[in-house]
Design a protein that fits this description.
The chain is an alpha+beta fold. The protein is built from 8 helices and 9 strands. The protein has one domain (about 45-245): NADH Oxidase (3-Layer(aba) Sandwich), CATH 3.40.109. The chain has helices at about 10-15, 60-65, 80-90, 150-155, 160-165, 180-185, 190-210, 225-230, and strands at about 45, 95, 105, 115-120, 130-135, 140-145, 170-175, 215-220, 235-245.
Length: about 250
């Protein structure tokens, strides 16, 4: 009866304390989960421009912080492959691969676990056919998941602001593989997943500002519909956050 009288938030906080998360797969010496979602060995990977070859950008950091804003309307212009590569590098770029399968990236992540797969609903990127793609962070490449006519209806139906998604050049969706985080943090991982998503999206805002690409974070989506569109089971793998981007 006492549990029934507690709010959902109270129950969540109590279930995810450090005390509740003392025993984890990592503490028991179990092998870590894969750091990247597998793909068929014969899958066609689309290489992105190498991060080291991207042009340097001299920016006024305080100005970038002050000008950062949410933009929901875009002018229909295409992003270049270099610009898409830049945004992906700034949000999930792998700087170093560690022996245990962990990685050091351009965003912070609790315990260096980096639980996200980045899905891209691409409408307007030069050199890419519209459709759904997945970013392969360790390869810095794209993997085609579905053509536009196969995904458009289901993907748009998953968002409350579907018109903004439709008008974007690219819509990012960060989907968590919760096992990567629970491996080290147990129940506490439920808190860290959503904190990590905020770090990633803020990097997208700031990186976009440096190349005059507008960003609008998206939390208003229908979980079951979006997970189904991305072919995620909605249990250990599920969509956490999204963002529409486009030129302005």
């Amino acid at each position: 009866m006492e549990t029934a009288n507690k709010s959902m938030l109270q129950q969540f906080l109590e279930a995810t304390t450090l005390e509740q998360s003392a025993v984890t797969p990592a503490s028991e010496g179990k092998a870590p989960p894969l750091a990247e979602k597998p793909f068929p060995p014969d899958a066609v990977r689309i290489p992105l421009p190498e991060p080291g070859m991207l042009p340097d950008r001299n920016v006024n950091f305080l100005e970038i912080i002050e000008l950062r804003s949410t933009l929901r309307q875009y002018n229909g212009a295409y992003l270049t492959m270099e610009e898409l590569s830049y945004l992906l590098w700034c949000t999930q770029g792998v700087k170093m691969v560690l022996p245990n399968g962990d990685s050091r990236r351009n965003v912070p992540s609790a315990g260096g676990r980096h639980p996200f797969e980045t899905y891209l609903y691409i409408k307007r990127v030069e050199g890419l056919s519209p459709g759904l793609y997945r970013f392969l962070a360790f390869e810095h490449a794209l993997l085609a998941e579905a053509a536009l006519d196969e995904i458009e209806e289901d993907f748009l139906a998953a968002f409350r602001a579907s018109q903004m998604v439709e008008n974007s050049a690219v819509t990012f969706v960060w989907a968590a593989d919760a096992r990567r985080m629970t491996y080290k943090f147990g129940n506490r991982a439920c808190r860290y997943l959503f904190l990590d998503a905020g770090h990633v999206c803020e990097n997208l805002y700031l990186a976009g500002q440096t190349i005059h690409v507008g960003t609008c974070a998206i939390g208003a989506f229908y979980d079951e519909k979006l997970n189904a569109a991305l072919k995620l089971k909605g249990e250990s793998e599920f969509a956490v956050y999204g963002a529409a981007v486009g030129k302005f």
